[in-house]
């Protein structure tokens, strides 16, 4: 039987909207509560260095009030690692971060700050936090993730989604098989495989066909379509499409 794919509900952009006016609404916590009621498996949030969406208080509130796992995305910096060790979320996903980018642009370069990365993974795991690295679907990066001691990888699906939006069949296939091959390789090394970035209904449905992908983390599209049909309906639609 096909395994049920876990859904990580990334609530960053509820906070983006709240911060746009500096008011207390819409509340990321309220979105997370609706997510929990609609079978999401984890709440995902990215604490960016410029705090443009989620902020520390949101994370403490989520940790205290939401009884489903919290997946915190962070850049590889001293500040973020020490905050994570204090917050102790269930999962940490280490992502590259560049202040000027609109969203995370590529996967983590596992050659940069390698020693710090390895030491950080050890420290996080000592606190019983599972660690994932957000990487491109590239076999070398996957091997590095294993050697560095990560529990999981999150495959960057941005290129696949971009080709999908451009309707280029040949390139869509190339990106699909890159993700498939990467998943197979990561599984053969004993890594858990997650995927995310740029996913919508169609791309999530297509990628759910790759056996071995255990979790999707979806953010921007969730909130974008919620404007038109409401969060509950978006979540229900994903549950139906992914047969969860
Ligand atoms: N996964 C990771 C590691 C990310 O950094 C992001 C973007 O913050 C996402 C998933 C979600 O991407 P999107 O908002 O495009 O769904």
Low-confidence spans: none
Number of discrete domains: 1
What characterizes the major β-sheet? 8 strands, parallel, barrel
CATH hierarchy, class: Alpha Beta
CATH topology: TIM Barrel
Describe this structure in words.
By secondary structure, the chain is of the alpha/beta class. The chain has one domain: TIM Barrel. It has helices spanning about 10-20, 30-35, 55-65, 80-85, 115-125, 140-150, 160-165, 170-190, 200-205, 220-230, 230-240, and strands at about 5-10, 40-45, 70-75, 90-95, 130-135, 150-155, 190-195, 215-220. Strands 1-2-3-4-5-6-7-8 form an 8-stranded parallel barrel, surrounded by 7 helices. Helix 9 (about 200-205) links the parallel strand 7 (about 190-195) and strand 8. Helix 6 (about 140-150) runs parallel beside helix 8, helix 7 (about 160-165) runs antiparallel to helix 8 and helix 10 (about 220-230) packs across helix 11 (about 230-240). The longest helix is centred in the C-terminal third of the chain and has 20 residues, at about 170-190. The chain is globular. Pyridoxine-5'-phosphate (PXP) binds near residues 154, 197, 199 and 218.
């Amino acid at each position: 039987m096909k395994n049920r794919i876990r859904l990580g509900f990334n609530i960053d952009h509820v906070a983006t909207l709240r911060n746009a006016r500096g008011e207390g609404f819409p509340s990321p916590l309220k979105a997370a509560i609706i997510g929990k009621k609609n079978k999401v498996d984890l709440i995902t949030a990215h604490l960016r260095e410029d705090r443009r969406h989620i902020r520390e208080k949101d994370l403490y509130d989520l940790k205290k009030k939401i009884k489903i796992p919290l997946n915190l995305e962070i850049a590889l910096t001293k500040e973020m690692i020490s905050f994570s060790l204090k917050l102790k979320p269930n999962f940490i996903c280490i992502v590259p971060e560049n202040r000027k980018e609109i969203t995370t642009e590529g996967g983590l370069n596992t050659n940069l700050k390698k020693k710090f990365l390895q030491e950080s993974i050890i420290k996080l795991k000592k606190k019983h936090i599972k660690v994932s690295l957000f990487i491109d679907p590239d076999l070398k990066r996957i091997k590095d993730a294993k050697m560095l001691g990560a529990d999981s990888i999150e495959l960057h699906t941005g290129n696949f989604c971009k080709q999908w939006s451009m309707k280029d069949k040949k390139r869509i296939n190339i990106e699909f098989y890159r993700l498939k091959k990467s998943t197979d390789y990561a599984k053969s090394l004993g890594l858990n495989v997650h995927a995310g970035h740029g996913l919508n209904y169609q791309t999530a449905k297509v990628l759910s066909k790759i056996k071995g992908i255990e979790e999707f983390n979806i953010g921007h599209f969730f909130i974008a379509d919620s404007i038109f049909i409401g969060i509950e309906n978006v979540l229900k639609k994903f549950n139906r499409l992914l047969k969860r």
